[in-house]
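Run log, item B.
One chain of 180 residues. Sequence copied directly from the ordering sheet:
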Amino acid sequence: MIPNIILVGFMGCGKSSVGRRLAALAGHRFLDTDDLVVENEGLSIPEIFSAAGEEGFRLCEEAALADLDGVTGIVLSTGGGIILRETNRERIRRLGIVIWLDADPEILFERATRSGRRPLLQTADPRARFLGLLESRRPLYTEVSDARVDSGNLTHDEAAQSILDAVMRVQNSGRQVGGC
């Protein structure tokens, strides 16, 4: 049986796009913490940031993640900053095998700025903000993840298969996961 698969990584790494393909490949349901927050709050993420700031959004994100305790058969795409809270890092590790989806910073920046809808990048110098956030979060992605997959030069389908292969290696190593 394939355990829950939790995707972490910085904005632009492809967690949602790859996660959907991965869910189909693994025979799991796809969930996205951003979608869960929007559903729970009845507001878009930019609206939540505007009304409650980043801290308010992080509280909503933590609550959405807590609602998944005991859920099985999922691929979960998480928001890029979900790893900022220790409680979330612990919960993610219990929930499933954690894969850090990563890519070269330039690729991530180009992808993250395509839509212009990233609240954390609404600054005078989005590139500096982006790089600062990325560097501060990389140690947390390393801490929480069981494996890292570089999606930079892969199609979504190739990245999904690479993740599934990594999950199998981790599972075969004997890592015990709650929620399997």
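Observations after the first pass:
- The domain at 5-172 is CATH 3.40.50.300 (Rossmann fold).
- Residues 115 and 143 are 29 Å apart (CA to CA).
Flagged for discussion on Thursday.
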